[in-house]
Amino acid sequence: MKCDKCHKECRKIAGTHHYTESGLDNVWLLNMPMYECDCGHKIFEIPAFMQLHDFLAKLIVEKPLDLTREEVKFLRKTLHKSSKELASLLEVSPVTVSRWESGKSKISHAYQLLLKTIVYTHFKHLIVENALEQMRKEREKIERQIKKKTIELPLPFIAHKALLRYRYANA
Ligand SMILES: [Zn+2]
Question: Out of 9, 55, 157, 169, which residue is the most buried by the measure of CB atoms under 10 Å away?
């Protein structure tokens, strides 16, 4: 890893990083890979960035306490929604969302629950989408193997085995 500032090679170190870039002020990443240059510049490398953000969103959704303004904003970003889009989804004005996120007014308990439910549903949807995508990939792989007349079947596809054998035999 080269330094952004002086282009010298950096040393790899591991350290604790107060992850304020997330928009949350109470997240510390332990043993995070970092690169340090002789000039004092540090480069951070956040492994599995998307998974980390999803994990943080899940922690926020599951916590029983009131959402902070930072957490409201974090959840909105998790949904990939603008303030205006979230406002329209929750049937409030965009000004209301801005006020929640700037801390000018407190988000009510009912809206907290609604927002948490929307994020929760978003993740459920993602899980289903990922499973379907995985199945599509496996299926395509099997189709290619059939064309090449060699078949390796992963365990979850036992149900298809008989059918595929039949197709293979008749190919
Ligand atoms: Zn440097």
Answer: 157
| Residue of 82, 84, 17 lying closest to 52 (CA atoms) | 17
Measured CA to CA, the distance from residue 111 to residue 114 in angstroms comes to 5
Ion ligand 1: residues, CB within 5 A, are: 3, 5-6, 37, 39, 41
pTM, full prediction: 0.69
How remote is the CA of residue 152 from the centroid of ligand 1, in Å?
50
pLDDT one-digit tens code per residue, 123-138: 888 777 777 788 788 7
The per-residue pLDDT for range 104-119, each reduced to its tens digit, is: 999 999 999 999 999 9
- SS3 call for 16: strand
Domain extents for the chain?
A: 1-47, 49-141
Span from the CA of 36 to the centroid of ligand 1 (angstroms): 8
